[in-house]
Amino acid sequence: MSRNQAFKKFIVCSLSVAVLSFCLCISGFAAEDKFPSKPITVIIPLSAGGANDTTARILEPMSRDVFGQPMIINCRPGGGGSIGTELVGQAKPDGYTILFGHSTPNCLLPAMEGRSRGPGQLDAISRINILDSVIVVRADSPFKSFKEMIEWARANPGKLTFGMVGGERSWAGMEWTYQCKTHNIDAPIVPFDGGGPQISALLGGHVHAVLSFVTTFMPHYKAGKVRFLANYGRQRDPNLPDLPSTTELGFPPAGPGGIWKAMFAPKGTPRPVIDILDQGFKKMTENKTAIERMKARGDQFNYMSAAEFEKYWRQDYETFKKIAQSLK
Question: Which end of the chain has fewer beta carbons closer than 10 Å to its terminal beta carbon, N or C?
């Protein structure tokens, strides 16, 4: 083969590769434009019946109208939320398996222990909401106020049992550990994999108190089965204006705010897919019926876009790292 013929063959091959690459690129964009073309699985890293699960059930009916496809809710509890988080982290980054995570497995555990998945290990989609928690006891509990409970705990070291989703290595667990250390309280933490088991334990009398979402216990509060002692935060809950905050009672939280809940995708999910999911969840959180259903549970949406939440997420992660160091 002459040098001229070889050069012509090289040019033809190069053009063929370029055309093929262009076609594949166009095909890729076309595939993304069709997203979603099948159901979207939403992994919840906590048990059924908790705040993430009940919020997801409010969003789920809107998925066909918003995405054109249903969302399949799959609760995979364990490891303080790290098991479900890892399932999503290892899933194909195509937007069809996403995580409805929260502060503990996606911020606190990575910051404190270097496990589960935090910033840089998942792609943020949207923040759905953020809320404070409440300290809850059974309606027949001898503790009529937060002050009474603390006084009893100090007089009876090691006897007051506090139920926490995720145990010590959770947002609630970290906050309670901080309070015990700061105020010289000995009150053991009893761990649970989700809000459902936590509810059963409190109602069954297996723990004295819990620190949990308002939404998790609101139905039982309205039914007269439990009593709220305080709103765990820096101010009162607008939905419970008569309930004092722990800050005004002399027990300000260690962290800057409450627990957020957010949607995540496996790292490397295409940006057009993230944008479709983000805009879809934005529409859901603006739906009037969904807003009313959340309000009836004592909750509300606090949507934040992927870009906004990515920045917020990283800042929260750094805050948790500093708090973790202070507790050692």
Answer: C
